[in-house]
Amino acid sequence: MAVEVPFGSSILDAARAVQVDIPTLCKHKDLLPTAACGLCIVKVGGSRKMPRACATEIEDGMEIVTHDAELTEIRKATIELILSNHPNACLTCGRNGDCELQTIAGNFGIRQDVIPRYVRDLEPDCSTGSIIMDFTKCIKCGRCVQVCQEMQNVWALSFLERGINNRMAPAGDISLSESPCVRCGQCSAHCPTGAIVENDETTTVWEALRDSSKYCVVQVAPSVRVALGEAFGYPPGTDLTGKIYSVLRRLGFKAVFDTTFAADLTILEEAAEFVDRFASGKGELPLITSCCPAWVDYMEKRFADFIPNFSTAKSPQQMLGVMAKTYFASESGIDPATIYQVSIMPCTAKKYELERSEEMYASGHKDVDVALTTREFARMIKQSGIAFRDLPEGKSDSILGTYSGAGVLFGNTGGVMEAALRTAYFMVSGKNLEKEAINIMPVRGLDGIKSAALDVQGTEVRVAVAHGLGNVERLLLTVRQARRNGEPPPYHFIEVMACPGGCIGGGGQPYGVCDELRRQRMKGIVDSDLGMALRFSHENPEIKKIYSDFLGEPLGEKAHQLLHTRYKDRPAYQR
């Protein structure tokens, strides 16, 4: 069979282009090939060597055998060798039923140990409270190290020791919490086994739901609605907002809120902050967004000189948390001490954010009690026995659940910027962007760094968007250099998201993330915005009401007290 592929394609790329599945455990679509696992060997006509398909560039006229009896036996032996250093603990593993090693071993019919097991007795690292690292389950594929070092530029993970004792660990063999780790969870999103997983807190939530003294409420983030369905057989990007509301009520939550409401609230505060700085010269430019806790952690450790540029607005998760235990509690006549707030987030770093600083207790209580990832949420639904696909469409509680399309856009890279510009334009000009200008296309898409210029009554506003921390550093270094040269800032407003693609590619989303899947999830978010009559955060009637009845005005005294936070310079290594 003749196959034509673009110049520079690998043998693995070519095979996938014609629906041929060459097994691999180390190659991921996001990452460069390492040829570490040895499973993707193939035969090439005219050569006695068996090159690794992921790292071998295809050439004109090449004749390739991808599968035969000999290759199958070699691959099977390789899997058996990998399993000899892997614990036999599938039933209690966080990736049971969703593990690439387990799947491949099953595909090759491996039913017993052929090689005696040698598994080192290494304690798991639970120090961050966000992700768990079980070093005994590492297969040394190198994905997590490559993600952490090259894609995220965090450098918290490395390989230590040699030979049979070679292992993945935090650099310097310290705990993960002492390392430069920012808890983004991209290592867990790319790990093929249970070596790195989120800290599962579903049992804690079940216990709270059974506790009659607690008034359990829940919020769900914008990006969860277009990713959760993957755990139930829906195509990526399917918007399941209504079913999510229904299942949350069936699980026993007494009030169901939408974090997208708080995204609109964030926009009112953040856009007002930008206009205040840009129009009146109060504060430094560029203003940098602060919704992403992994980015906040990274900034405090690596770019603390930008603290004056950082928006003090809390993330939507924390804004909704404090509103639930103040405004909602007051309006509903509920003792805030009894409210137990759960958030469903795409992100492992959201677990860290709950206790990042004293401002996360602005209600007088812990504003959000537990943060679950999308993966944890899917497990809870499956544990409950609820037939998710058969559920009717439900509704959120309007008091903290009505939202605009602008708020939904928070789920994508560029979405915070687009939503903020829609409202900032209104705050400056007194009118909304024209219909054809609402969709700010230059800040959309998966380019690592995006920029745009918007004319606001004759004044140019320059903005930039970066996602993936490696891209963030490149962008901020240009800003820092302009500052050192005494030049005007190249941008007035910058949005940052730690994870590639933004929250739709968060470290707590369903496994298998790659750019193709990110685009599908992104389309679901954009389509949701396009389909809404309400597309400006400042036009959300519930937002207007909460300011009128409770907060006063954006950046006002009460808003600052409840909705804003502070930052501090912290060392990258915590010892």
Question: Can you put this structure into words, describing what you see?
Answer:
The mean pLDDT is 95. This protein folds into two domains: 117-199, 2-Layer Sandwich (Alpha-Beta Plaits), CATH 3.30.70.20; 203-563, Rossmann fold (3-Layer(aba) Sandwich), CATH 3.40.50.1780. It has helices at residues 11-17, 69-83, 100-107, 143-151, 186-190, 202-210, 241-251, 259-280, 293-302, 316-332, 349-353, 374-384, 405-408, 415-429, 469-484, 515-530, 541-551, 557-563; strands at residues 43-44, 64-65, 131-133, 157-160, 167-170, 196-198, 215-220, 255-258, 287-288, 339-345, 370-373, 449-456, 459-467, 493-497. The protein is built from 18 helices and 14 strands. Helix content is 34%, strand content 11%. The longest helix has 22 residues, at 259-280.
Secondary-structure topology with pairs:
Blueprint: H1 11-17, E1 43-44, E2 64-65, H2 69-83, H3 100-107, E3 131-133, H4 143-151, E4 157-160, E5 167-170, H5 186-190, E6 196-198, H6 202-210, E7 215-220, H7 241-251, E8 255-258, H8 259-280, E9 287-288, H9 293-302, H10 316-332, E10 339-345, H11 349-353, E11 370-373, H12 374-384, H13 405-408, H14 415-429, E12 449-456, E13 459-467, H15 469-484, E14 493-497, H16 515-530, H17 541-551, H18 557-563
Parallel strand pairs: 7-8, 7-10, 9-14, 10-11, 13-14
Antiparallel strand pairs: 1-2, 3-6, 4-5, 12-13
Average pLDDT: 95
Basic shape: globular
- The low-pLDDT segments are none
Count of discrete alpha- or pi-helical segments spanning 4 or more residues: 18
Number of self-contained structural domains: 2
What's the gyration radius in Å?
25 Å
Distance between the termini: 59 Å
The major pleated sheet works out as: 4 strands, parallel
Helix/strand/pairing category: alpha/beta
The CATH architecture assignment of the largest domain turns out to be 3-Layer(aba) Sandwich
Strand portion, in percent? 5-15%
**Which percent range fits the helix content?**
25-40%
The CATH class of the largest domain turns out to be Alpha Beta
Might you state the CATH topology name of the largest domain? Rossmann fold
List the strand order in the largest sheet: 8-7-10-11
Oligomer class: single chain
Number of strands: 14
